[in-house]
Design brief:
Keywords: NADP, Oxidoreductase. The structure is a single chain. The protein is α/β, with parallel strands linked by helices and 301 residues long. The chain has two domains: 6-142 and 179-204, Rossmann fold, CATH 3.40.50; 146-177 and 207-274 and 284-300, UDP-galactose 4-epimerase, domain 1 (Alpha-Beta Complex). The protein has helices spanning 17-26, 57-63, 82-92, 117-132, 147-150, 181-193, 212-222, 235-247, 253-264, 279-282, 289-300; strands spanning 6-10, 30-35, 48-51, 69-72, 96-98, 137-142, 145-146, 165-169, 176-179, 201-204, 208-210, 229-233. The strands form three sheets. A seven-stranded parallel beta sheet has the order 3-2-1-4-5-6-10, with helices on both faces. A three-stranded mixed beta sheet has the order 7-9-11. Helix 2 (57-63) crosses helix 3, helix 3 packs parallel to helix 4 and helix 8 runs antiparallel to helix 9. The chain is globular and about 60 Å long.
């Protein structure tokens, strides 16, 4: 495959997009940002921002002329809409497409019929169909849960650092791969720099494998005077609640979180810890226990 030089990025102003943009720019790729509107202040001066209609194959095809690769970082609610972008990329002669997935267990067939995951599988199948006829190639980056999200000081993090509370999933020993937003953004650039070795496959990176009990033990060691309030819940129960509520028409964030936690944080049930990775290929350095301790100390305040 010829060298990838130019990249179009969709979803650049979202939660992960800015880190991918920085990774691509630092790696000296020519970057074009695809956006619904050129809102001032969203991007630094000099960034090539092109207004597109994400529902129009024609609009996207025109914007993708001369582009070697497309990276999508659109939000979870927009996963299904990537089909139009894929069709446009194929028509424009794009060589590589990286879809918005970036999850823990999104490639496990056990989850493919669940809400949220069904669209992920549909998009990956669509990409494979294009690859089968030689129209483009694809790569999925599986990076586990983003470290910043897992360590967020809220009820959705692995521990509620602010209130010294912990809801231990399945007892707290589920192993979970995690990668920081910055490292994942750099990994995207490395995928494109190693285009032949990453062609038409899932690439896995893991900056660290965590458990809730590991984090709790570090926190207690750092501040033994603090009293932590703990409770337990089964991820299978969370998943069932989420699926039942979703089926009843409740599509709220708490319901979606139950489905995500019941699968992506369920440890070995769905394979959320990556013991075999592509870290060496992409130059990903694993975090040490000392690194993790420093992060936890910051969270404890």
């Amino acid at each position: 495959m010829s060298q990838i030089k130019s990249v179009a990025l969709a979803g650049a102003s979202g939660a992960f997009g800015p880190y991918v943009l920085r990774g691509l720019l630092d790696a000296k790729f020519e970057v074009k940002v695809l956006a619904r509107s050129k809102k001032s202040g969203h991007f630094e001066a000099g960034i090539d921002v092109v207004e597109v209609d994400f529902t129009s194959v024609e609009s996207l095809t025109a914007a993708l002329q001369g582009i070697d690769a497309v990276v999508s970082t659109v939000a979870g609610t927009a996963i299904k809409t990537q089909g139009v972008l894929i069709d446009a990329a194929a028509l424009a002669g794009v060589k590589r497409f990286i879809p918005s997935e970036y999850g823990s267990v999104t490639t496990n067939p056990k989850v493919q019929t669940f809400p949220l995951y069904d669209n992920v599988f549909m998009i990956r199948n669509h990409l494979q169909e294009k690859a089968d006829v030689g129209q483009l190639t694809w790569t999925v980056l599986a990076c586990g849960a983003f470290l910043e999200f897992l360590l967020a000081s809220s009820s959705t993090g692995l521990l509620d650092f602010a209130n010294r509370k912990a809801t231990l999933l399945d007892g707290g020993d589920n192993r979970l791969t995690s990668t920081s937003l910055t490292t994942a953004g750099k990994a995207i650039a490395e995928i494109l720099k190693n285009s032949e070795a990453t062609k038409n496959r899932v690439v896995k990176v893991s900056e660290i494998i965590l458990t809730q009990n590991q984090l709790l033990q570090i926190a207690q060691k750092l501040k033994p005077e603090d009293k932590w309030h703990t409770s337990t819940v089964a991820t299978s129960a969370l998943l069932k609640e989420g699926l039942d509520e979703f089926s009843a028409g409740d599509f709220s964030f708490p319901v979606i979180f139950k489905i995500i936690a019941g699968t992506g944080l369920a440890g070995e049930t769905y394979g959320s810890a990556y013991d075999e990775t592509d870290n060496d290929l992409l130059g990903v350095q694993e975090l040490t226990e000392a690194d993790l301790t420093r992060v936890v100390a910051e969270k404890l305040g």
